[in-house]
Amino acid sequence: MTKRRFSQQAVSDWMKGDGPESDIVISSRIRIARNLRHKPFPMLATNDQLVEVMEQLTEVANSGKLKPIGKFETIVLSELNELERRVLVEKHLISPNLANESRGGAVILSDNESVSIMINEEDHLRIQCLYPGFQIKEAWKHANRIDDVFEDETDYAFDEKKGYLTSCPTNVGTGIRASVMMHLPALVLTQQINRILSAVTQVGLAVRGLYGEGSEALGNLFQISNQITLGQSETEIIDNLHGVAKQIIEHEKAARSRLMSESRLRIEDRVKRSYGILSYAAVIDSKESAQRLSDVRLGVDLGLLDDVSPQIMNELIVMTQPGFLQQAFNEKMSAEQRDYRRAELIRKQLRSQTEHGGA
């Protein structure tokens, strides 16, 4: 297999696994930001300096030091075309910043794509670990092991009072962003979501959409993450997020139970209407497809739909993004053509699910 498999396959291997509370928590993510001492941060560095940083960090990755953790491959972004970079963004393997600014940019990926190490994004080094379900503490342990390897082999920019130094002041300190991606359709349907999310922001956490800061919460998917990186230890940050996420999980479960006891027929009708539209629509835009997929996933989790995999939403949310659609059909598309191809791809995937009994 070539390195381009990372941009050719829609679904990362880690997404196929089940994790704790996976009916509500889609994934858990840790991202660690680091910079090298005595090197200009990426926004101020010259091309030559960025290349030096890339060579130094990829040398660590290729030295065998990461071997006990897993198998990794390095991809230099200048070797990818615009569409391939876009697909990596849609799969959450690189950030839009790194895709758009590829000077000295690279990404080191684990075989199952659960680990993504970005080089010369906003910071010299960004280590990302993704786990299925509610496994934020496990993701932190994994990311911390990788961070230790790079810290042993390089000299990080660190201040005794401030902690790790980063390009953005909001990351100074631990340099950690911990987040959980949660599917909260019942809280939306019972109109509790605004109250819950307001309470979340009051305890120092941020709420974003599927693709992070500035993105819309399509398909009832909400990313809950820490805002504070300075003045708290790594353990305090992880424990705070874990505790709040656990409460949100309980609220979502209670809301689902309420829907089933008070409005079962209405919910079943909604779920099956969405399944029917996805199964037969000739044209569908990204916003509607995300909402319909959310309904179907809720139906699967509540036992209202048979022969559909619970991972269907995870997979199709990625597969129906503009970049992957154009790559899958090997053609450049207008918005209208994407809506047609999106509907075609969804119909095909749902038909395959039915034929294989949700496998």
Automatic annotation (TrEMBL):
It is an enzyme of class 2 (transferase). It catalyses: L-arginyl-[protein] + ATP = N(omega)-phospho-L-arginyl-[protein] + ADP + H(+). Appears to be allosterically activated by the binding of pArg-containing polypeptides to the pArg-binding pocket localized in the C-terminal domain of McsB. Its EC number is 2.7.14.1. A motif (RDXXRA motif of the pArg binding pocket involved in allosteric regulation) lies at residues 338-343. Keywords: Allosteric enzyme, ATP-binding, Kinase, Nucleotide-binding, Transferase. One of its GO terms (biological process) is phosphocreatine biosynthetic process. Residues 24-255 form the Phosphagen kinase C-terminal domain. GO terms for molecular function: ATP binding; creatine kinase activity; protein arginine kinase activity. ATP binds at residues 27-31, 92, 126, 177-181, 208-213. It holds the Pfam family ATP-gua_Ptrans. GO terms for cellular component: extracellular space. Belongs to the ATP:guanido phosphotransferase family. Catalyzes the specific phosphorylation of arginine residues in proteins. HAMAP family: Prot_Arg_kinase (MF_00602). This is Protein-arginine kinase. It comes from Paenibacillus radicis (ex Gao et al. 2016).
